[in-house]
Structure to design on (343 residues):
């Protein structure tokens, strides 16, 4: 292990992995394939990196390697969000706007998508992202193994959205969910609601958990009750779920994401419920145009601002003015009272 009181070095990685320091350098610089280093050896190096919690000096690496002036954009979604009605499109617009302002060029990494539709950074064993000085990452279907390897190779990247696991040790910019939940629950409490149900997604990632943790914290702060949360897949959300919510005494419903909100709106219409007379609803997300839930009270996520700030943070990371572990939360716009009324 590294000596107490100092950060681990490449020599420590070499000792733990049982390889030479030059091998460590080749693996971490992304030249392992070109130098015919066996995959088993690479795996030992990355395992040592993870064990020692090695964090490279991104700024120093960038200065040694020089700059191309190119900033990469990598999405874990199946399709790049270029369509105007795509949920992530405002983020991409913000990225482009800030790139223009900072006079850097953008590279969209489309070749990372495999035949199965899944995007992998190391699809062919090499890191295509190295064409750019650094990259902004967006989308939910991240590959933790790829990200650990990318960080170990000292490649600079910034996430859009809150992340856990190995990704939590890298810079990210995300909405401030804790304050967002205060803006969602305060008007419900002021309207007289005392029991509020929570409808979330079945797949639980850091953004979903951050929303629910904020919900629990503010329910406790306001002296409200909520019962057990309902974490459901879209095909599990049906009329029985809404009937159960009403039967258990809940007079308001907080919905975690725009997809279940759209599904819930269709069910509400089928049941002939009046929103907000029969049930007050707040959505913890921006509901897309065309959704039957578009008029409901909703938190407006700062998607364009997230894109702009991600580019600025990446440049700051390259310059060494922020650390690898820097995280920033942006304010959200509070919901209207369109689907909030007294019980």
């Amino acid at each position: 292990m590294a000596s107490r009181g100092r950060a681990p070095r490449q020599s420590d990685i070499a000792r733990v992995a049982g390889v030479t320091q030059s091998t460590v350098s080749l693996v971490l610089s992304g030249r392992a394939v070109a130098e015919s280093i066996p995959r088993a050896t690479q795996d030992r190096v990355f395992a040592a990196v993870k064990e020692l919690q090695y964090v490279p000096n991104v700024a120093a690496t960038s200065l040694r390697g020089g700059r191309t002036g190119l900033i990469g954009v990598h999405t874990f979604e199946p399709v790049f969000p270029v369509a105007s009605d795509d949920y992530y499109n405002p983020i991409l617009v913000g990225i482009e706007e800030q790139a223009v302002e900072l006079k850097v060029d953008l590279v969209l990494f489309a070749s990372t998508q495999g035949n199965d539709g899944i995007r992998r950074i190391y699809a062919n064993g090499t890191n295509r992202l190295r064409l750019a000085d650094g990259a902004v990452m967006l989308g939910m279907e991240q590959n933790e193994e790829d990200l650990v390897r990318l960080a170990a190779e000292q490649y600079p990247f910034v996430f859009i959205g809150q992340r856990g696991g190995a990704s939590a040790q890298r810079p990210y910019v995300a909405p401030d969910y804790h304050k967002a939940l205060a803006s969602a629950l305060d008007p419900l409490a002021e309207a007289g609601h005392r029991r509020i149900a929570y409808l979330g997604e079945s797949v639980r990632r850091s953004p979903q958990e951050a929303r629910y943790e904020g919900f629990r914290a503010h329910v406790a702060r306001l002296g409200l009750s909520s019962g057990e949360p309902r974490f459901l897949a879209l095909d599990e959300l049906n009329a029985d779920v809404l009937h159960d919510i009403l039967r258990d005494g809940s007079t308001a419903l907080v919905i975690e994401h725009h997809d279940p909100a759209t599904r819930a709106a269709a069910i509400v219409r089928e049941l002939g419920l009046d929103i907000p007379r029969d049930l007050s609803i707040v959505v913890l997300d921006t509901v897309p145009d065309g959704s039957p839930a578009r008029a409901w009270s909703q938190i407006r996520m700062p998607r364009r601002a997230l894109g702009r700030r991600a580019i600025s943070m990446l440049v700051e990371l390259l310059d060494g003015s922020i650390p690898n572990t820097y995280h920033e939360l942006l304010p959200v716009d509070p919901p209207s009272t369109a689907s909030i009324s007294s019980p």
Observations:
- The longest strand covers residues 70-75.
- Residues 118 and 215 are 33 Å apart (CA to CA).
